[in-house]
Amino acid sequence: MSRIVLDASVSSQLHNLTHTVELCDPSGRVLGQFFPKIDMSEWEPVSPEASEEELERRAQSTEWYSTEEVLAHLNNLEKQ
Questions:
Q1: How much is the average pLDDT of 52-60?
Q2: Residues contacting 17, CB < 8 A, separation 6+
């Protein structure tokens, strides 16, 4: 990947952004998008809450479906 070093003025405009912005040349032509780097240490993983009983019920289940069966079921739902 190539690297472009920004001058202090542009760098200060981008430094504290929390959302994606378009980068444009002086005529307004869009050159690309800037996605701020996210510090993942500030985030915690999120997962659906499942009780121990629910996890046990799932582990004991004998009812399983193949990918093909699931896709066929979803296709049938679309046709309805």
A1: 91
A2: 34, 36
The pLDDT of residue 16 is 85
CA distances from 67 to 7, 58, 62 (A): 52, 18, 16
Report field, pTM of the whole predicted structure over 0.90 = no
Q: What is the mean pLDDT of residues 10-30?
A: 93
CA count, 13 A, side-chain hemisphere, 80: 6
Q: Letter for the amino acid at 27? A: S
In Å, how far are 4, 6, 49, 55, 74 from 1, measured between CA atoms?
10, 16, 40, 44, 41
Residue 20, both tokens: 């994606």
